[in-house]
## 1
Amino acid sequence: MKLTDTSRREFLKTGILGIGSVMMLPSCMKNYTPWQFFTEEEAICMAAICEQIIPTDDHGPGATYAGVIFYIDKQLDEVFTWDRDKYRRGIPAIQRCAVKLHGSKFEALEFSTQTDMLESMESGKLPAEAWNCDINQGNLFSTMVQHTMQGFYGSPRHGGNKNYISYRLMNLDYPYIVGQNRYRHLKAQ
Amino acid sequence: MNNRIFFAITLVVIIAIAVSLSGYAAWNAANPEKTCASCHEINPSLEMWQISSHRDINCKECHGTAMSNGFHSIKEKTGMVFTHIREKKLNSDIRLTETQVIETMDRCANCHQEEQKKWKSGGHAAAYADIFLNKAHNNMERPYWDCFRCHGMHYEGNIYDLIEPVSTRGPWQIIDEGKENDPVMTCMSCHEIHAGNDTRKAASSLEDPKAIFYERKEANANRNPKAGLYIRADEMYLRADHLPVPEMYDGERKLKITPNPLQSVCVQCHSPNWQHQAGTEDDRTPSGVHEGLACMACHETHSNDATNSCTKCHPVISNCGLDHETMNTSYFDPESPNNIHHVKCTDCHDEEDLLRNNN
């Protein structure tokens, strides 16, 4: 479209939009963070929990490679608004328990220690004084498992399953390889 | 008006224009980290570009500038900012529109002239009118949404937005006439431009030609495939070597399939029936004497040209005394019953004679 093809109304509209946009640009020039919902600290802890749920093993990469944390982050921001509070208050509770029981943050613990901690959390046995919030431990754990599974096995368009890794691990033909059937019509004629 | 005021206003206007133009020029020449990626939503795209083989090419070379397409570009780019604020668009939601894909594709030719010419000379340069107004096809099968899986991967709409009537009875027409000549298979259908890859380097030494071969061989082994597939359903790319390699069959016999990952891209659109029988539907997987060959062994990747493909493997001065180009196959004669993709020794020779000679 050339300027000469543009109506006066169109020109004015775009001009106003342009000036308005330029004025809004400084609000976009903030420091980049890949997280939409999580803070950096929450994301690191949550990524470690996801890797516990689907670890990298002999069968292939786990939740970290698949970018499950990005799925959970995106969904909490855009869709699962009802679960936000659980994560926001639950992750610090997990960290408090990790520090109280083992002296360091969850993500810094040995893999087997992390497993033990999550097993305790699943059965609601993390120390109540350290947990210190009204989020149900077992319920939070099962939500985390559910979301991790979704992020690992769901479509990558929702933020996880990077490079369709779980589909490949399952030898799933995806994208589905099947041709059209018009030649069958031709052969029938 | 007083002359002095008039000159003062003119001077101010000239200075304002000069400052704006030089600012604009400086903005376009600057490092994208300081310009395009200062919008946080562009950052992930920038990070991908920084590890791609196109990392030495500035954003504007492919995406244009705010004024490279005149008023249209200004409107588009200011609209992006408004959409971002009003609809809370995130980086993962940002896609080029089909118009932008086609505009960007035209700029690919600034460097890849040869590839573009080859592409234009082949079947993959088909336009919307060629595919969606094809009477023979439409009479046989109603156009439907899945056509876009391979034809019009970046089309923003459904089949009802594109043509009418959506039935086996024509006459058909493309609703937006401007789309008729747009390509349905663009560079970006098979290439993810921001995909991570190394750039090619000059040989470290020219002293020993043999060493150049091995150096290049090692470098190529570490490079990612150049192709990937744009998956319309998910609006994302999958690198060729991450695509599934289908198990293919000739009857009940499982065929040997080339490990060349590029073939996995071809088979996504040149696909077999659900039983994965070679040669069914749109599939061209070689069986018979050519079993195990990759599409690219005979077809040039951009033009799909297969002229002279025989001589790539069968010497012109044939070792066995046969001229493969004039044998009774579909390479020589389109009416030949011996399809070059599936021709077997026994299509021309008596099986018992062959066995006897082998023994």
## 2
Amino acid sequence: MLITCPYCGPRDVSEFTYQGDGNRERPAPASQNLDAWNEYVYDRLNPAGDHNEVWQHSGGCRSHLKVVRNTLTHEISSVVFARGHVPHRSPTKRGSKA
Amino acid sequence: MAEYSALALIRNALNGNKDWKPAWRKPEPKASYDVIVIGGGGHGLSTAYYLAKEHGITNVAVLEKGYLGSGNVGRNTTAVRSNYLLPANTRFYEHSMKLWENLSHDLNYNVMFSQRGCLNLAHTPAQLDDFARRGNAMRHLGVDAELMTPAEISRLIPAMHVSPDARFPIYGGLMQPRAGTARHDAVAWGYARAADRRGVDIVENCEVTGFIREGERIVGVTTTRGDIRARKVALAVAGSTGRVMQMAGIERLPIESHVLQAFVTESLKPFIDTVVTFGMGHFYMSQSDKGGLIYGGDLDGYNSYAQRGNLPIVEEVMAEMLALFPSLGMARVLRSWGGVCDMTMDGSPIITTGPLPGMYLNCGWCYGGFKATPASGWCFAHTIAKDEPHELNAPFTLERFHHGAIIDDKGQGATPRLH
């Protein structure tokens, strides 16, 4: 299985760490809604078909990625940065002080 | 007289084997039953058998979407053990072990249960301490457990690399002598035949496509072979639990389906006569009576219903095997395959009434379902017949996650791929 990292390009699955179901919504840290916390921690959609999930390119650029992958065929239809944008790399000028 | 016996063998040998009956009938499904069990794997078949045997409920159908034993009961690595830490698990799996010990007689079918022991290797002093603790917990509940020294381990498994220069030196191990292996297909066939002889209809190539409801209540299923109604509908579909429950309108469960791979080598002369597990990764191996080494390791680690895995795990499992048995570098791998495991959030199963009226749920076997086959069916049959759990499966509810009463033997938390 290859995952096409938007930053590094297609890389072997062994470079990535699976971080699980990307459908879950984390309640606000101060939330005391036990049902919402229970759903976030324990309940999963677990679909047979397209699955939203989070991976990290831990053996590469270390970006967190939002991946849509088919759990029946392992086919990947979309990979984007989890934050929804390309991380900003500001070009540093030679000789300039940081 | 028992159908399979030495006398029956001789009689059939003399008359050209004309007396054998098919092991189970191929009935057309009836319009209604008392109980429908969805899933013709080990757990579904044993559920049907114990419904008939222990509770006298014989108007039962087992619906299997493929052929009998085509799922995980024919895909596992056949280890049977009851070496758990937490009392709920220990009691349940020890009940299973006791049923295993008499299973061939009970079913009049040789399931080739072989109590060859299961040894967990410890590679650090801390790990050995942890095993001692688990062994003590087991003995406290009357289960057999023994700590072994490296010298004893070296005598037990001469082929293993037990030396201080090993990559991961062995400090000792926890042995359960009554653990072992069984012939997995025979377990499916034996339960199927024994259930069939008590009147259970085993309907193969019959895929459930939906549920029939009256109000909230489940009163039957629609299938590829027509509608079938029942007072009680029981699910024992392991890796397909998410898919089948979605047909019932239940979208979220504390379960993820993951793929686990297994491997078998060509037949070798007797090489190892116990089940051994590696403690510095995840690897387990035994040798079948045909001589093939059967082994496996971790899950692939991502959600999957594909029944096939990827190469990184293959490489990892082979590396772990060679760390323990360098001589197996010469052995050729015959086959590898994958099975879909229903991983729960605490690594323990779910056997319960509900979650809908008229429905009963048996799932969450992670990758330890084979050894549970007898007790799973026994407890599930009790739950279905009495509409309440037996005390052995009372802790294995679906709601335990809501209440915080999780049974997390490995202490991994809600990360299913790590259980």
## 3
Amino acid sequence: MNKNYLSTSSEWTFETIEAYDREIARIAHEKFRLDTYPNQIEIIRSDQMMDAYASIGMPVFYNHWSYGKHFVNVEQNYSRGRMGLAYEIVINSNPCIAYLMEENTLTMQALVIAHACYGHNSFFKGNYLFRSWTDAEAIVDYLLFAKNYIAHCEERYGVRNVELLLDSCHALMNYGVDRYKRPTPISAAAEALRQQEREQYIQQHINDLWRTLPRKAQVDEAIEIQKFPAESQENILYFIEKNAPLLEGWQREIVRIVRKVAQYFYPQRQTQVMNEGWATFWHYTILHEMYDEGLVNEGFMMEFLTSHTNVVMQPDFDSRYYSGINPYALGFAMMKDIRRICENPTDEDQRWFPDIAGSDWISTLDHVMRNYRDESFILQFMSPKIMRDFHFFALQDDDRRNVIDVTAIHNDEGYRLLRETLSQQYNLSSQEPDIQVESVNIRGDRSLTLYHHMHNRRPLSNDCYEMLRHVHRLWGYDVHLHSVETDGRRVRSYHLQEGRE
Amino acid sequence: MAYVVDRRLNSKNKSLVNRQRFLKRYHEQIREAVSDAVSRRNITDMQRGDSITIPKRDISEPVFRHGQGGQRDIVHPGNKEFVQGDRIQRPPAGGGGGSGSGDASDSGEGVDDFVFQISQSEFLEYLFEDLALPNMVKRQLVGSDSFETQRAGFSEVGSPNQINIVRTMRSAQARRIALSGKARRRRREVLAELADLEEQEEPKSEEERLALEEELSRLNFRLNTVPFLDDFDLKYNLHIRVPKPSPKAVMFCVMDVSGSMTQDIKETAKRFFFLLYLFLQKNYEHIDVVFIRHHTQAQEVDEETFFYSRETGGTVVSSALNLMSDIINERYSPNEWNIYGAQASDGDNWQEDNQRCQKALVDGILPNVQYFTYIEIGDRDPQGLWHLYQHLESDYADRFAIQRVRDNSEIYPVFRELFKKTMTVD
């Protein structure tokens, strides 16, 4: 084979990075048909990497103490050698911004370029969640707006006030996303909505007058009042932004900013295994292709494989390094497995995956990447081989029993249950408590009632009193939270009322 | 094809604001941690930065999440011996480690402390926050290096490099207007008249024209003699040397080393002296420290001897106080020096000596010092010296303070008590 190494040194220069990028881009685009945003590769120092960490990876971000806390934590652990920094951070924007650390060797830079600039990048551009929920064109501009707006509010209304508001919003951040995109309302519905908003506006201003009426009258009327909101609302922050009676304009805007940011990150939280698996699969495949083409030498490959192996290591549950399932390991194994099923299907694969066994692997993987998230990806594509390789087993921990049951292992009876259980583990809506706005007492004390729809009888943690305080700060009036069983029974109630707790 | 951008030259410390906000928010906890650190640490590394530990629950950011209980299904990798239907004993609550189900992993309710580092200056900042030196009045000007140059307006004389161009030009213009304004106006009139004459072209005006022309040339001469810039216009920036108060302080450490003072008590005293030293260091540029130890006789010694050599014998406190006032008289003139005294003792003293102590303090020391503190270490009842000093404290409230300390952990609170800001007296 003809050897034409791009370089043999481990020191990177801007020229060599560009050369590698050119080759990687050629292989990714032409050979493997990856569709990417243009790339912007930024070389930064390790302390800048820490800064980037602290502001959840974004190039601009508003100020808040919690990022400072995050920062001192990272700084501390890094300087003590307790943790390494990520080799890269990549931002879902157009152009796709990737940060590379200057400490990396040339091999690492090549790995990172393949991983971030072509792997993650094509995932951001292709996956349906990112396509429908995030706006890669506008995010950096929006964050810049957010930063300036919040800085302006701090000047005008005081750092302390803004900070308190942000605390509360951050606490509810996971409840600031629309989990299911609603169809755009038809015009009549939109009109009705506006109408409703107008009414609401009047409502809010009239309530003060009504308070002076005798209590009796209120109770009678409350019976015939329609429930508000008509349907329960899962997006608590949105509901607060639109309906909280006491918030001022700027406060609503800040709630909205936090909501937008939460929405932007929501797809990432839902596609961790897929996203990392996809990127890892591609750096692995692309760099191997480079080796096959004679562009890199054995030394390069040894170094690359060493760090690749570290990244995809999965400790067993009883190891002291175990901290859950490594998304890189699982995702990479599954992506690779899908390629195997396409190229060399076994009889088992023919039975389990009749529609993809033997198909073109590049287009199959592309289809997978575009149309799934972790939960459905695992449910659909985890093969028995993966379960055997990982030695997966499922446990059921039920507080009504004093033992823990092993419900499934990697055998013929267990595969389906195992796969279902694992897929649920990546279903955010079953991992996070399902809490929704149930009703507002619009004619009475304006109290807000939240329902926690229990799943498998799992209760809320003790945090939730603290949480109610945050909800209360935003809502301004009493807040009630009921844990509700599937049969509608109220199992437990939490209240936060004015003047007492 | 990607753009490769070098961002390494961009500014660092993008997170500085966030970090400061974090410190500000947990101000109270950090201050507590600092005061813990003082009682825990060795004196020699007292002024390093420190790792600050805050209980995690204090700074957690709450979110709604599941608590313990209910039914949970979870998948783990690495099965070795389990088969379907196996039952595993639930590990004891909070166990976490060990084999078994390995189930403690993702409940996420760990209560580890949050530890981070603050720098030396931040440490001292927190340590001495809200503290002030009482009577920081005496500021003697010493040495030639304690001058600083300040701008002091403008002057008519100076060296060329100090010329203030704006001022100079302004003054030149004013002078030119003052000296030539009238002549200039006149010249305009003359020129206009001459122009008129030309139009009329009457011979009888010849004489008049000659007169006008003569006046014009006189005016031109006059105007030309007004210089653009005159010596008189030059203005110079004036710098004067202002004597800079260079605060000097001397700190007297007075300690009883008689037999009754155990090494523990000395250690406590040492912490107190050290805190005082750090505190003075923050406020004064130059500090001398004088160590005076005493049993029945007093001696000025070096630091090592002061803290570590042991003596036995009785206790005559007045000897040390007399020595202190002698040293003040000899070397540290109260006009030049801010004098601080700190005395540590277990409170023992010869009964008969108390009167002499009072005299030494009232005559030789208290009039000269900025502040004199006395700490009595030990958990016995107040001793003779304490009662004596209590009387004095009420008479010299602005410069004399006494406190009792039982052990190391009390040093810092007592120190704060002695120097807290409300003590300032004008």
## 4
Amino acid sequence: MHDLEQLLANFNPSSSFPEQHRLYSKTRKLLKKGDAPAHFTPIRIAMIGSGTFQAVAQLLRLHLLAAGIAPTIFEGEYNNFRQEALNPNSALFTFQPDIVIIITDHRDLMTLSALKPGVDITALAQEELSTWAMIWQSIATHAQCPIIQNNFDTPELRDFDQLETRVAHSQGHYIRRLTLMLAEQLPANVILHDLDYLTSYHGKRNWYDPRYYFHAKQACALNYAATYAASLTRLIKVQTGKVRKCLVLDLDNTLWGGVIGDDGLSGIELGQGSPVGEAHLALQHYASTLKKRGVLLAVCSKNDVENAKLPFTDHPDMHLGLADIACFVANWHPKPDNLQKIATELNIGLDSLVFVDDNPAEREIVRQFLPQVAVPEMPQDPAYYVRILNELAYFEPLTFSAEDGQRTEMYKANQARKAAQLSTQDMGDFLKSLKMEAIIRPFQDADIERVAQLIARSNQFNLTTRRHDKETLERFRAADDYLTLSVRLKDRFGDNGLIAVWIGKVDTHNSTLEIDTWLMSCRVLSRGVEQHLMNIVVDACKQHNIQTVHGVYIPTKKNGMVASLYEKLGFTTVETTDNIQRSTLDVANYTAFETAIHNC
Amino acid sequence: MTDITQSLQDVFREVFDDEEIVITDDMTSENIEEWDSMMHINLIFACEQKFGLKFALAEIASLRNVGELKAIITSKSTT
């Protein structure tokens, strides 16, 4: 193991500031001697802002390293973010960031001094937002990268004490209005960091220390620098494709109190009437909320399967039903084996799993054998289960689309398909029996969220792993020299939704096209979708007078499954190095594949 | 070495991650390479945690050397 990984192996993101700062200093010393491990994801982060945010920047570095991300961080000058963002020749842009973080708070609003009785606060808020829009626009133009922008926290001080929200020109009322308008008008390249939630949740009188603010305009009290860094880290992780997808739950003493095998249906503690039972029920409600937003739920329990399922089918206070669980595993095998099984069954990586278990021994064995799985340290008292999981926010979403709410149903339908596959001898017959129908078309308005999300999340069937943001996608859509395609797939088991994304860059001068991006959700593997899409691509090439298609494969740790995709599709490999593989296809010589997919 | 001097030396060693630091009353930020304005705040914060006290704004801003730091801690610890 690399020295750095050794040092950060037991990193506790909620340890004290001095402790974390010391660890940060140690990582700096190590990185002066040598590079971060080669498998770490490199990223260039520019932080600009109004006050002193060095402590946040230092801990951000630490938290990112602990998450397997190796950042190079540019720290802007004190109170200089507007100038840096608006000047195309500033050090911010010479740095060429992959992401820009704007560390500001309510004190950076320019319109506060205009608040007086009778002022049109909506118009004033609009004026304020237009000054921020200029900053974002400039960054979009000169750095072409996503921005993380703090929202505006309601201040510690109230102009009118308890009358605050009733007086329209009070800071409290105005900033609340502004925060909602900001969220509604946010451009596609900006990700909101919910500073207002952090300051409220931790308490504004704790978050800000007036001494440090007067001394050096510190962004927050030092004991909250870690909280700040952890919160930003979660957004950056999702942005770099490090996404958790599935919450795996233990049953006894986790989803309910007691042991179903010993205590029986009437003996377990669950639901109203028992305070402990209510705490376990609260965890079920929390899991259910995650499910509605697209997180898969799985069960991993040491139990006889009949016993394990009994509360789900027969207990009146049970909130979760069997239909909510995408994968249910109850047996007496070691939990690491079962987690492996869950990952395989759902066709997701072990690094997409979060494992919740009340038993410290089970948590420890999973940490030992499967370090990729996130295993939160659960409190002994079930009363705190939900709070801890909410604080850790493993499933931080950057977007929400209607399809997210349907994800469990899609995965379950997929398991039904697998079962059907086992009972069908011939693969061709099986695929025909699926009665697949595809809609393949250029990106539509309604697709952009989902396309951006697939681009952010897909790791395995992903030829180039280029993480284009929404704004870039809009640019491709509008550009003459880009072709975009998305694939939606339905079959007799249900709608798979939008499952593949394809982007090609046309070079009219040479009559060629290079495939910039091609990715597909793994839940539709081995069904001929890639062959079908290639047929469509070649048709489109003929329409556009393109004679040669260039395919690019950029190897990562996770996309080995598509290493020979272009070869399988009839391309000729022309260059292979460690970092890239290039192939070409002569459009005239392409023979269309037979597939079992119909266009609709 | 007094208890406070010993504890304060521990704080310095932890904050600067250097087990060899030996503090003296006339030591200033000039004597420790990494002692910049950020580390100054870290140092104050670590002292507050270690000795369970709070520095006033004016004290944070005016501290010149280890002797002054020790004097403030001593006065706050005995009252």
